[in-house]
Specification:
MetI-like fold; 15 helices
């Protein structure tokens, strides 16, 4: 009797575990189904417009006006791309964007990193007030400064050139760049710069040889953010470009109109596809550096 009584409790405990597993299994499956449905919905929302735009770049004007939106193009040719590149002056608009965005981006990264280094690494009186001044520049709406800037550029004789875009892009992007670079420099241990100073490095060498290599991923992050803002700008470029030869890419997309103001949908979609593909390639190429830069500024050294 004793052996029977001791065996019953030993066999009763393991019987409860399969019951608990059976209860949690349907919940896990339901969670997987719901998460998969949400991912599929987000994929349709993100990829759907891109696919629709790509298909539209192969359609003719008649197909846009007479056939449904979801209809496939009758012919798969690159006539719209050729028209957008040649007749639509896409190459010239893209060249103007490159000539204004990349020099502005270089100046923003250089001056922004130098200002961030000076505000967070160097010790001097009044740096807190200077940092607040840069933060105040972020709060100033761009629309408020366009008219005074246009009058100033007109008096200086800079209208009719790309200089107003380059100067305005650099000035409007600096406050955010300085704030972000100061945040990243704050995460760098001060002992590294002190050791460099003890080894005989001056301020310039400490900045270029010690500071910049340590915030390299941050430069990629700030540069990519500023690149998207400058490349996709329409308001500033539309204000300061007074001729067709100076239009940037975003302003040039407004020029894909035919007779009596009708929009040429096929060439327009082709030009947008070329623009989106170029930006997407740059983002995919710098994706890892951007992720490293975003996490680097969140850790205090």
């Amino acid at each position: 009797m004793t052996s029977v009584d001791t065996a019953v409790p030993a066999t009763s405990a393991p019987l409860r575990r399969p019951t608990a597993r059976r209860r949690t299994a349907p919940r896990r499956r339901l969670g997987q189904v719901v998460s998969g449905a949400l991912v599929a919905l987000l994929l349709v929302i993100v990829v759907g417009p891109l696919v629709w735009m790509l298909l539209g770049s192969f359609k003719t004007q008649t197909e846009f006006l007479e056939q449904p939106v979801w209809a496939l193009p009758a012919q798969w040719n690159f006539d719209n791309y050729v028209f957008a590149w040649t007749e639509g002056n896409f190459a010239q608009y893209a060249s103007n964007s490159v000539l204004t965005v990349f020099p502005s981006l270089l100046l923003v990264l250089l001056f922004g990193s130098m200002a961030g280094f000076a505000l967070e690494v160097l010790v001097w009186k009044g740096r807190g007030a200077i940092l607040i001044t840069f933060l105040a520049g972020i709060m100033v709406p761009t629309q408020m400064i366009l008219l005074p800037l246009f009058a100033a550029y007109f008096r200086l004789g800079l209208t009719g050139t790309l200089w107003p875009l380059l100067i305005t892009y650099t000035a409007t992007s600096l406050p955010l760049a300085v704030f972000l670079m100061a945040t990243f420099f704050r995460a760098v241990p001060r002992e590294i710069f002190e050791a460099a100073m003890l080894d005989g490095a001056g301020i310039v060498r400490s900045f270029f040889l010690v500071g910049l290599p340590m915030v390299r991923n941050a430069l990629f992050t700030v540069g990519l953010v500023q690149f998207f803002m400058l490349w996709n700008d329409l308001l500033i470029a539309l204000t300061f470009t007074n001729s067709g030869s100076l239009r940037t890419l975003q302003v040039g997309l407004l020029n894909f109109t035919g007779q009596f103001g009708s929009v040429q949908y096929g060439p327009l979609f082709a030009a947008i596809c070329l623009n989106v593909v170029a930006i997407l390639v740059i983002y995919l190429f710098l994706n890892k550096q951007v992720q490293k830069g975003l996490t680097a500024g969140a850790v205090k050294g």
